[in-house]
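My main concern about presentation is that the manuscript never shows what a single data entry looks like. Each protein is reduced to its one-letter sequence and a matching series of backbone shape codes. For the editor and my fellow referees, an illustration may be useful. For illustration, here is how one protein appears when written out as sequence plus structure tokens:
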Amino acid sequence: MESRRPMRDKLKNPDYWTFYLSDRADFLHEIAEDLKGAGNTYDEQVADRSFMETFGFNLASAAYSSGLEISKCCSYARSLLVEYYPIYVRACGLAPRRAFDEESGGWDFRTRYLALAVLCKLTPEEAKPLIDALDFWPERDALWEVFIAHLGRGDGRDPVDTLVWPEAYEDALAACAPEATDFDRQVALMQFDKGWLKEMRSSTNPFYSNHNNTNNTYVGYWNFEAAAIVAMFGIDDTPLANSKTYPKDWADWVRR
């Protein structure tokens, strides 16, 4: 049994988190074994790699929910960021036009992945596979570019002033504005966090509205994006301390 602090997310009991982490880790191992026998066609490559990406994020989030040390949460997240997601995108590259038409590419999670990269303190070299994978897709986003610049991969990139998901991230982008004062950033982040879960639930991803379900699919409701912005700009996050969706101790860990 891994050592852990008290649960950060009490919407589920300790037995749930213990089972979830073990079960999903085993599932990822099974997928990895299946991939060893996969053929080289697009269909044979993409499906399992998409599962690896999805469950890679879920494990990182569930690890945090369960109370594991931040370093262990980062270990799960790093596997997603530098291995699972880039491998999935490389498979999509076997048929780019088909991938653009049929795969979402994690459009509603790309901001989350970049936030996790900041929270895991990826070096520019470590972040390169993730940034390259994100750049495979045609969409560009102003908030993504803020995270990418912080990760040391911003040189030579074209400026972007629009958001792929403005309803979710307009306030987050405002918190990153170069001319914003510390107070401006606090206010924008509070507004962002206030509406964050509602916007996540408006997406097609089921994981934001299912903590009452009997299925083992709940991984926690965590606004990693807000924590990453706090860490990047050194914002006083006292007004967010009582938010049920703000992962404060992860932001604290980055700043330490």
Q: What stands out?
A: The two ends are 27 Å apart (CA to CA). The chain has a mean pLDDT of 92. The chain has eleven helices and no strands.
